[in-house]
Amino acid sequence: MNIDEQVALLMQGTEYGDDELKQAMTAELRERLVEAQKEGRQLRVYCGYDPTKPDLHLGHTITMRKLRQFQDLGHKVFFVVGTYTSLIGDPSDKDKLRPQLSQAEVEANARTYAEQVFKSHILDQQKTEVRYNAEWLSKLSFEELIKLASNFTLQQFLTRENFKKRWDNGDAVFLHECFYPLMQGYDAYHLRADVQVGGTEQLFNIATAARKIMTFMGVKPNIAILMNILPGTDGVVKMSKSLGNHIPINTNAEDMYGKVMSIPDSAMPIYFRLTTRWMPADIEKIEGDMKSGALHPRDAKMKLAWEVSSSFYGDEEANKAQEAFIRMFQKHDAPEEMPEFKANSSRTVLDVLLAAKLVTSKSEGRRLIEQKGVRLDGEVLDNAMTVFPHSGILQVGKRKFIKIVF
User: Domain 231-331, what architecture?
Assistant: First the structure.
């Protein structure tokens, strides 16, 4: 793969909110790749993950898949677990103070992170160096912190959208939250990172704070690779377990396949670019074939669902998942188009059946559930009073199908 092809692949799925910045980062990446090739060295690439929750979903893996692309091109990847930054919590994408975790909570969550990542085969374990940033951040002196802080003004923090919103609303903005970008910037410096990968909410932390600190410390600044945000199965809102629109990675191929098939057609382009191993040319062909009518959107989505499932569970399991989906939905005459029902995340399974008019009474709903006649994405729902688990295709009996979205 030549340099231009590498750049096209590595910039696939990125979003900066500013074309000039994207062009600048693209040019810097090309220059650094050429430089590394001439010097016969690997680029040093890292992404940090704060273990604020013990389980991961597909949205969390977008940056990991980008790390894997760098790995496959022969570069050095650091998977940094934020055992120290998570004591503060990144405020970048929040309009309220993040809860501070205890050291015990952080350590318990951290133990599961790398395990889930390597179990899912997103990253090559043999080529990944796992680091914990408490290793170096806990050793920073107060004098060193003052020197790092001298690179920033309060205005830079207070004009950030999430801080400004809280300030304007009269909500507290705590001083310790301003330490987070400094700590993340120091991570990049300590690792001498050529490239730092993150989501679009990391724009200030990576493209401003880390580059500024690295320059101040006398090393070449990192290149920001900012990944677009993956919408959930509703195709609109950022994937989130709390919203019920997530696709867990600690599941099975059949479940993952079904959930990918439940996304709206409009979300397919971003899923192509963020969740697959496909090259830019592969995606262009699929989208071109859909536009010309040579490929039905349903078949394109099946390719996508197979690819995502295969990347986590292997080809054999993905094949089984696809066969199960075909048996469940195509051979049971599930319609290609079906009504949609918007539910809120606090409703029970029985509430949704009634509200969507899939049953005429609570007793009918309970009877169908007891008889294993209610399925969500092919999985039996066997508890009438449990909170409806997530969006997806709900089947009641043999003939009733409806798409549930939150």
Answer: Orthogonal Bundle (1.10)
Which region, left, alpha or beta, applies to residue 32 given φ > 0 means left and ψ of -120 to 50 means alpha? Answer: alpha
Across the chain, mean pLDDT equals 88
- The residue length of the chain stands at 406
Q: Of the ranges 36-45, 129-138, 384-393, which one carries the lowest mean pLDDT score?
A: 384-393
- Cα–Cα dist 398/344, whole Å: 25
Prediction pTM value: 0.77
Q: Which two tokens stand for residue 243?
A: 């919203």
Cα separation of 133 and 295, whole Å? Answer: 47
**Could you give phi then psi for residue 243, rounded to 5 degrees?**
-90, -10
Q: What is the mean pLDDT of residues 100-114?
A: 71
What is the chain's alpha carbon radius of gyration, rounded to the nearest angstrom? 23
Pick among 1.25.40.10, 3.40.50.620, 1.10.10.1400, 3.90.76.10: CATH of 3-227? 3.40.50.620
Which pLDDT does position 95 carry in this prediction?
Answer: 45
User: In this structure, which CATH number among 3.30.70.330, 3.40.190.10, 3.30.10.20, 3.10.290.10 belongs to the domain 333-406?
Assistant: 3.10.290.10
CA distance linking residue 30 with residue 220, whole number of Å: 15
Tokens matching residue 292: 């010309």
Task: Output the pLDDT for position 99.
Answer: 60
Q: Report the run of H or E that residue 112 belongs to, with start and end.
A: helix 103-119
| Cα–Cα nearest to 208, from 151, 146, 137 | 151
* Side-chain-facing half-sphere of 361: CA atoms under 13 Å: 3
Sheet containing 340-342, strands listed edge to edge, beginning at the edge strand earlier in sequence:
340-342, 400-405, 392-396, 374-376, 379-380
Q: CATH 1.10.240.10 spans which residues of the chain?
A: 231-331
DSSP annotation of 228 = P
Average pLDDT over residues 122-143: 92
Condensed to tens digits (0 to 9), the pLDDT of residues 142-166 reads 999 999 999 998 888 888 777 888 8
**Mean pLDDT over residues 225-238, rounded?**
92
With contact defined as beta carbons under 8 Å apart, do 254 and 321 qualify? yes
Q: Are the C-beta atoms of residues 359 and 368 closer than 8 Å to each other?
A: yes
pLDDT of residue 27: 97
Helices (H), 192-267: 211-216, 253-261
pLDDT confidence bin for 114, thresholds 50/70/90 = confident
